[in-house]
Specification:
The chain is mainly α. Helix content is 49%, strand content 0%. Helix 1 crosses helix 2.
Length: 70
Amino acid sequence: AYTESMEKVRKTLIETVSKIAKEKGVTLVVVKQQVIWHDNAIDLTSTVLRHLDTNLPQVPIKIIESEQDK
């Protein structure tokens, strides 16, 4: 259940980042933790998070009862 939910988040994140990067003419996007220094003018984080909040306001996680829990 967790894996499926996180896959949905990952897929939406990649689609969102790709769309925003193309709109802004960005040709490379890196994970913030891998950057030593950057100019805040090129940081897409807040824009991406706003789009994610709009396009994926919640992610349901289906918990399946196991035989041991019965």
